[in-house]
Amino acid sequence: MSHGGAEQTPRARRAEGLSFALFAAVGIGGAWLAGWGVKRRRMAHCEERDASELPDEEPATVGGEEMSSDYYDEVAEFSEMKIFAGSSSPELAREICAHLGISLGRAFCGKFADGEIAVQVLDEVRGGDVYVLQSAPHSEKDTDSAFMELLLMTSALRRSSAKRITAVIPYLSYARQTQVFEAHRPRPIAAADVALMLSTLGVDRVILVDVHNPRMEGFFPTEVPVHNIDAQALAVQYFKKKHLEKVVVVATDNMGGERTKAFWNRLTRVGIDAGLASMVSNRPERSRREGSPLVLTPPGSLADHTIITQAGEKKNVASLGRHDWLVGDVKGCDCIIVDDIIDTGSRAFKTANFLKKAGARRIFMYATHGVFSKGAIDRINKSPIDELIVTNSIPLPNYIFSEKLRVLSIGKLLAETIRRVHTNSSVSVLFQDAFIAKQHMA
Amino acid sequence: MWSRSACRLLRGCATHSSTAQSSVAACQAATDSAHRLGVTSLLVGASVCVGGAAWWERQRYRQSGRVARCDINTNANANANNHRNPLWRSQERKPIEKKIEESLILSGNSNVPLAEGIANHLGKKLGSIQLKRFADGEVSLQIMDSLRGKDVYLIQPTSPPVNEHLMELLLMISTCRRSSAKKITAVIPYYGYARQDRKLSSRVPISAADVARLIETMGVDRVVAVDLHCGQIQGFFGPRVPVDNLEAQIIGLEYFLNKNLQKPIIVSPDAGGVYRARKFQEGLISRGMDDVGIAMLIKQRAGANKIDRMDLVGSVRGSDVIIVDDMIDTAGTLCEAARELRKHGARRVFAFATHGLFSGPALDRIEASPLEEVVVTDSIPSNDRVRKCTRITQLSIAVLVADAIRRIHQKESLHDLFHTRA
């Protein structure tokens, strides 16, 4: 994936050419020396093997050079399959390819001088089963360009007669905008629009990872099947090895209950006796996300609601103002805060503080997608969270540094999904804990 | 026989003129006297009646205001002249006559000053919209006005940063569609990705077509664009979405008419743009500038690692030259063309382009080139750097776009707007 302006001044080009020539000269010299060494070593190795194990067989020769059969890999199984990566997550793409034993398809994604995206697929794809991997870049780094890149890549593949195009999107941006809160002040259902855009430009199937709202699958038309990969099982395996005491799973707000319960179920299934707690708030749902255009609450709209606080007294919600409460007892427990996205980190910060005040022993947090917007990592560092577990669905930039951060890789999971989609075998088996446990044992 | 014809004339005059009663009375008297006194008095009566008829005619013309004559006051004269221009209603900021309450003009973030100008020319205010970004860079959008049953005009050129502005436009369209707007017209003065309109090599996208499909899928009813890079983009939209491709030359022509050009010659910077130059030449000629010539440059690649060569077809010696193109991006070709023209003895070199992107090294190149003045429109908003560059003049196309919206809203023909001939 090479990036850079499509236009260069002739002088720069000449300078580049000169430096390239220099590098090439040095490189050729180095490669010759290195090659010589490798050849010698390899020959020695072959001689050893020839002497001990395979005395009768002739060593295979390729281009006059001796080669052991160990170096030959059967590629026929996935030769019909091509994986291309956009510019956002090349590392993850390489990891997936390594698991599948194929090489990454060659494609150029660059930008013109005026910011338009230039895409060219360099490998032949006619009649092939093609996978395009593109995630959102980390925070504020041109989310829309990344998405546009995916769209144009899809269209380029579609127009060059690929048989089937599967978009592999570890983190789909706009997936959080799924509702219109006030009909008289309309807001986009951007998640549905994004789904429509993908299917318009010719995506045949979509692989998502822990999408914010599982209803997202319904936004795609019936001819575009969606696989929503559940990455929670990875975290469950991780926590299983942690030897936690008195585990409590905590949801960060009213909306996170569904996800937290699924996580709790998984923990119980692998034999961890866990409890469940939740943060509850009386703030309007639309203001959940920072940067929402408007926070309007008509006065008195919450006046009828009465809640029972931890101390057992009845209180009117409106009289409390906007507040959050922790429901459940966490004293002396190891808490796992579960969420799908960690964006600005302010809710995680708040929840962790609540837990600490309520007497929690250790606080872990798991979120599948680490978006890490401005100030997020500082908040995490300051918070009482002991360990934050995310996956590599969004590549972490170099400037994000925290001792508390653990990154699990979804590469193997995605590779297995792609393999199963390619060979038309069941994908749902993948998400069963037994399967993942077996993978971890292996 | 004479008296009979005179009577017919007089009767006709009397039935037609209701206002000029005194002259009618005089004519009646004349007929009576003609019957009584004979031919001598008839002659007198005829002369009076002819005078009356001429006076009456003048009255009628003055009321209709159609003829500009020296005896009509100067204000009326100016108005009458203006109304020959197809844009006169928008220039005078006349409000939309029909159904003004049923239209809503919304602007995205990409060019608010232009949108305000357009709304101003239509005598309306921009609709209220909140368009921001979430912390992770996603578009956050909320429309604060009611849209139900309204004709919505979304003004959003997809200028750099292209992808962000395009995404805003797409989400704005779908939001309007989902909240029951009656008709959605996307006004896209600058259409991003327009130059990727064909496959130049294998396995590349046709991005202009892809963008068109995205816009169409989001539920737009009509698209208004200005000087599309190629007219075929109109065909990238399906037949259910009509595309109006306005021409901004009409704005540029007015500007160059007052420039005091000597022996003007219109130059196309490449062979593909000759039709644009020809149109500009026609426009200047029809606006009363005679002796306008045309020339073109042909760019050739001399070979690998060699500087491109430019050949001039036509002569520009001692004349003022206007290079006409549709957009200026990095200005490489333009500045090279200016140098080439200067070498061939051009007196002053101007440039006119609808869209001024000025990306990368464009401004430095323009400063270093022999270009006298670069005229662009405000289809792309100018930044501080562009404003500081003294050689760049920006004309507003607000009046043109406003008039197009006015005509679309009132279901009138847009034909006049495409006439570069006055």
From TrEMBL, chain A:
The keyword Kinase applies. GO terms for cellular component: cytoplasm; ribose phosphate diphosphokinase complex. It comes from the Eukaryota. Its EC number is 2.7.6.1. The chain crosses the membrane at residues 20-38. The keyword Membrane applies. GO terms for molecular function: ATP binding; kinase activity; magnesium ion binding; ribose phosphate diphosphokinase activity. It catalyses: D-ribose 5-phosphate + ATP = 5-phospho-alpha-D-ribose 1-diphosphate + AMP + H(+). InterPro entries: Pribosyltran_N, PRTase-like, Rib-P_diPkinase. Residues 81-202 form the Ribose-phosphate pyrophosphokinase N-terminal domain. One of its GO terms (biological process) is purine nucleotide biosynthetic process. It is an enzyme of class 2 (transferase). Keywords: ATP-binding, Kinase, Magnesium, Membrane, Metal-binding, Nucleotide biosynthesis, Nucleotide-binding, Transferase, Transmembrane, Transmembrane helix. Pathway: Metabolic intermediate biosynthesis; 5-phospho-alpha-D-ribose 1-diphosphate biosynthesis; 5-phospho-alpha-D-ribose 1-diphosphate from D-ribose 5-phosphate (route I): step 1/1. NCBIfam families: ribP_PPkin (TIGR01251). PANTHER family: RIBOSE-PHOSPHATE DIPHOSPHOKINASE FAMILY MEMBER, RIBOSE-PHOSPHATE PYROPHOSPHOKINASE 2. Belongs to the ribose-phosphate pyrophosphokinase family. This is ribose-phosphate diphosphokinase. It comes from Vitrella brassicaformis (strain CCMP3155).
UniProtKB/TrEMBL annotation, chain B:
It catalyses: D-ribose 5-phosphate + ATP = 5-phospho-alpha-D-ribose 1-diphosphate + AMP + H(+). It is an enzyme of class 2 (transferase). Its EC number is 2.7.6.1. InterPro entries: Pribosyltran_N, PRTase-like, PRTase_dom, Rib-P_diPkinase. SUPFAM superfamilies: PRTase-like. The lineage of its organism: Eukaryota, Sar, Alveolata, Colpodellida, Vitrellaceae. GO terms for biological process: 5-phosphoribose 1-diphosphate biosynthetic process; purine nucleotide biosynthetic process. This is ribose-phosphate diphosphokinase. It comes from the Eukaryota. Gene3D superfamilies: 3.40.50.2020. Pathway: Metabolic intermediate biosynthesis; 5-phospho-alpha-D-ribose 1-diphosphate biosynthesis; 5-phospho-alpha-D-ribose 1-diphosphate from D-ribose 5-phosphate (route I): step 1/1. It comes from Vitrella brassicaformis (strain CCMP3155). One of its GO terms (molecular function) is ATP binding.
